[in-house]
From TrEMBL:
Pfam families: RWD. It comes from the Eukaryota. It comes from Tetraodon nigroviridis (Spotted green pufferfish). SUPFAM superfamilies: UBC-like. This is RWD domain containing 4. Residues 9-111 form the RWD domain.
Length: 185
C-alpha cells in the first residue's frame, strides 16, 4: 500500500471510532485535534497532530500550541512531547493515531504530575481593579447627542422613504389610564 492509501484507511477508521466524540476534531483530512481530559480539568490539554505527505512512514507532527494549552508550563509541554515522540518511534510505519490518543488518555496523570497552572495577568487582577475598570468603562461609554443629531435620528427614513413603523405611537398605558378602560362604563 502507498502512504496515501494508508492515510485514507486510517482516516476512515478514526472517523468511525470517534464519531460523535467531542474530544476529537478533524481540522482537515491530514490535521486533527484531540483533547485529553475534560474541559473543566486543569490538567486537560489538546494535541494538534498533522500528517506529513509520507505518513505513516514518517512521523506525524505533534504540537501543543493550541490556545487551550496556554495554562500549561513549557516544561510540562516538553515532557508530553518527548513521551509522545517515544510512542511515535515505537509505532513507526503503522497507523498510530488511535494508539497515541489512547496512550495519552491513559497516561494523562503521569504526563501532568508536575503540572502547575501558568498564572496569567488576567487571573492576578483583584476584584477591586475589575470594579474600577468597569465603572470607568461605563462613564466613558455614555455619549451625548446634539439637538441636530437627535432631529436627524428622529426624521430618519427607511429605504422606501417612509418613517419607521411606530414613529408616532402613544404610550398605551398612559393613554388608557387617562381615558379609562371598559370597566369604568
Amino acid at each position: 500500500m502507498t502512504a496515501n492509501e494508508d492515510q485514507e484507511m486510517e482516516l476512515e477508521a478514526l472517523r468511525s471510532i470517534y464519531d460523535g466524540d467531542e474530544c476529537f476534531k478533524e481540522i482537515s483530512p491530514t490535521s486533527f485535534q484531540f483533547r485529553i481530559g475534560e474541559l473543566e480539568d486543569t490538567k486537560a490539554f489538546i494535541l494538534d497532530v498533522t500528517w506529513p505527505e509520507m505518513y505513516p512512514e514518517t512521523a506525524p507532527k505533534i504540537s501543543l500550541d493550541a490556545f487551550f494549552n496556554n495554562r500549561i508550563s513549557a516544561e510540562t509541554k516538553q515532557l508530553i512531547l518527548t513521551r509522545l515522540e517515544e510512542q511515535v518511534e515505537a509505532n513507526m510505519g503503522a497507523a498510530m493515531m488511535y494508539t497515541l490518543f489512547e496512550w495519552a488518555k491513559e497516561n494523562q496523570e503521569t504526563l501532568m504530575e508536575n503540572h502547575k497552572p501558568v498564572i496569567t495577568s488576567t487571573t492576578i487582577s483583584s476584584s477591586s481593579d475589575m470594579v474600577t475598570a468597569a465603572l470607568a468603562a461605563k462613564k466613558d461609554k455614555k455619549e451625548h447627542l446634539t439637538k441636530a443629531q437627535k432631529r436627524r435620528l428622529i426624521n430618519k427614513k427607511d429605504n422606501k422613504g417612509e418613517l419607521p413603523r411606530g414613529w408616532n405611537w402613544v404610550d398605551v398605558i398612559k393613554h388608557l389610564s387617562k381615558s379609562g378602560g371598559r370597566d369604568d362604563e
